[in-house]
Amino acid sequence: MMFSLTLLLLILIAILADRLLRQSLLSPLTKVPGPWYARFTSLVLKWNELTANRTRYIHGLHRRYGPAVRIAPTELAFASAAAVKEVYCSGGSGYDKTEFYDLFTVYGRRTMFTTLNKGDHAKRKRILADRYANSNIVRQPSLDGITERAANFVARCDESVTGSGSLDIFVYLHSYAFDCVTHHLFHPYGANSLQSKQDEEIMREVTFDDSLQNRLVQYYSPTLHSLFGTLLSAFAKPRETPLADEFVLETSARTDTAAFTVLNRLNEAGPPADMEPIDIAAECLDHMAAGIDTTGDALCFLMWELSQPRSLRYQTRLREEVLMMANPTGGAGFDKLAYLDAVVMEGLRCFPAIPMSLPRYVPRGGRDIDGYFVPEGTVVSCQAYSVQRIDEGVFPDPDTFNPDRWLDPKGDAERKRLFFAFANGGRGCVGKHLALAEMKMLLCAVYSRFETRPDESMAPEEMEMSDQLISSRPLGQRCLLRFLPVGCHRGE
Ligand code: HEM
């Protein structure tokens, strides 16, 4: 008995030693620089994920070790244009996604975002892509909805001037994004959370979600999660969005939405793409969620930065350009404003709403990435936060917000190659044109009417980046700004 136990123990030790030896000394990944412990364990990485700090942790490693880093025994992070091209663009849509995306399935269904392999993704994208093409976004009925919602946001700014003196733009920019994306999904049944408290509650449920730790346990240990889920939820909240679910399940059952909407396209898809009602609802909920935090947080970080004394000259230049337009608060004129474009690009460079890694599996046979041979099955990723600041030749003084850098024709191609806020390739953000239209329209509407300043009660730490599962939001989950009306508005 004693002998067989000792033998068993020895066998276990031998297996473990063999695994450690392979990982730490014999794997081709040993050639990739990184901290010593990453050869043996992913615990440090996981700890940073649990404490909402993954992006900054990986960025610190890039600064220390360069654009290719081993971050765990079978995981690498890259931050170069060559790696972005290989991982996200090779063969059109790059490498397949990892099971990390299972965490985002909706009603138990895979959506375009959560399909893992190329084939499934291409089928779904074929149905949806045209509703997000720029030509569809800048059509009048679509644009009118955004103009109207930007005016609703401005009405909130007006109220703050005569009321409390400041406005929590974290809340109302998420409302704006919610109203805009649901307009594009469901018009005339889109939400109106800038004016209706009931709709605002739906936005709050999605925006103030605090399920990071619970969902990470679900990802790393599904068995533990299913056995002790109830106990766990006493310490780490699960994601629960009953109001949003009800809104989407009801609204996505409609068959009479406007021609430009996503739901209209899903309803008309027909065979062979035939989608069951629950698939249609899942796709709509996914786009709704994808469109709220991203655009809301991107605008929030950007307006906070524009309001700082160090950035007031950029705000002034932006206002001057916007006021030159015949109709600064309507139409598609925003699309031609070079400085507005530079401000938005720089905002998304410094504060990408999805700054985090987008994990992919290296395909069969392995691949060469950025000069390293990487075996099949290795998890590889790039994160926008690092891709957009690690190369100081392309982005000098990378931590400084400076829209003017985008106006220099020299280096334009290099800057664009390293712009990764919407990812890249066939699986890049399908909502990019909608998001840009929303952002630009809102900035025109606000800065043609107001100067903005931070409210004195705000502490800078409140605006630090707090990582969620894939996106980041301001740590304090509030952002108070003061809106000072400008006297020389042309449209008045
Ligand atoms: C500033 C705003 C936005 C940013 C920075 C952003 C960023 C991104 C990024 C980085 C991805 C790739 C994610 C990955 O590979 O894991 C993505 C995908 C996606 N985004 Fe956005 N997004 C924004 C706004 C929107 C909006 C308004 C929508 C509206 C529906 C949207 C819908 C989607 C969808 C459906 C996907 C999945 C695309 C696919 O897998 O083919 N996004 N977005």
UniProtKB/TrEMBL annotation:
Binding residues for heme: 429
Signal peptide residues on this chain, from the entry's feature table: 1-17
Highest taxon of the lineage: Eukaryota
Gene3D superfamilies per record: Cytochrome P450
Molecular functions per Gene Ontology: heme binding; iron ion binding; monooxygenase activity; oxidoreductase activity, acting on paired donors, with incorporation or reduction of molecular oxygen
CDD domains: CYP_fungal
Cofactor: heme
Keywords: Heme, Iron, Metal-binding, Signal
UniProt cross-references to PANTHER family, sorted A to Z: CYTOCHROME P450 (PTHR24305), P450, PUTATIVE (EUROFUNG)-RELATED (PTHR24305:SF164)
Protein name (database record): Cytochrome P450
